[in-house]
From TrEMBL:
Subunit structure as annotated in this protein's UniProt entry: Homodimer.
The species this protein was found in: Streptomyces violaceus (Streptomyces venezuelae)
Protein name (database record): Pantothenate synthetase
Coiled-coil regions listed in the entry: none
Gene, per the UniProt record: panC
Main location: cytoplasm
Amino acid sequence: MTITLLGTAGELHARVRAGRRAVVMTMGALHEGHATLIRTARGIAGPDGEVVVTVFVNPLQFGQGEDLDRYPRTLDSDLELAGESGADVVFAPAVDEVYPGGEPQVRITAGPMGERLEGSARPGHFDGMLTVVAKLLHLTRPDVALYGQKDAQQLALIRRMVRDLNFGVEIVGVPTVREDDGLALSSRNRYLSPAERRTALALSSALFAGQDRHAAQEALRARAREVPATRARAEALSAIGESRAAADAHAMATAVPGGPAAVRAAARQVLDEAARLNPPLALDYLALVDPSDFTEIGHDFTGEAVLAVAARVGATRLIDNLPLTFGAAS
């Protein structure tokens, strides 16, 4: 597909389009995760629509000592991948185009949700992220914008901003893309040495361990709901050798603390083991949160949740998460 490179909003606004415009926002260094976002956008926009990929390394998202200067800039290969994945336009504005006159004096504040987890580890990060997302939504004027679920807290905050401030755009989350070994795709993966990458696999391994524990608990709870704790039922089950399974199911269903604590414990065990590797994994946080506000869930929680982890391996900081559903909603 022929790809058009544009650097100003005026050039983008001058384009004639008949269908929907779908936007994928990136900081460049595109990989298969971005390609999945672009392909999804192409399907949403349809043959008559337009897919715009933004490439902008936002200085407001980098705190003191973070890797703004080190962040990879690979525009030529980004253009190639975007075109192969179905994009019509790459919008790569200069800093002056996005922030004319220097850093903006008026910014969007992420609020309490933006101070938790990633916000606590990276103060001001989400204020900068929301400010540039708001700017790029205005500059690109999309009907729909797509973001990866790997950055779960970012996605939740963008959805909240769009709802709270009445942006006329649909927000679509796209599932995390993983490499064959389970590591979530990230432009920062290229910084990892072979030994560091082996340690970094603990992030996804911890999440999958928590997911497995959760699945086993939910299966037992489902069985407990189907098997009433009555003497007659127990006698009938014993005839086919299921009495112990029924008892175990009821024990699990009434255990305290509940499922979330066991999920956290299963994930924590993997991360604790990784902390003893060479090189070691340095954990920032492991959290099991309500995606509506990113507060920790309690033992009696039901509904959608996010199991999230962040850690450093060497000089590289990585994040990952998995969605889980607890209780009746599952």
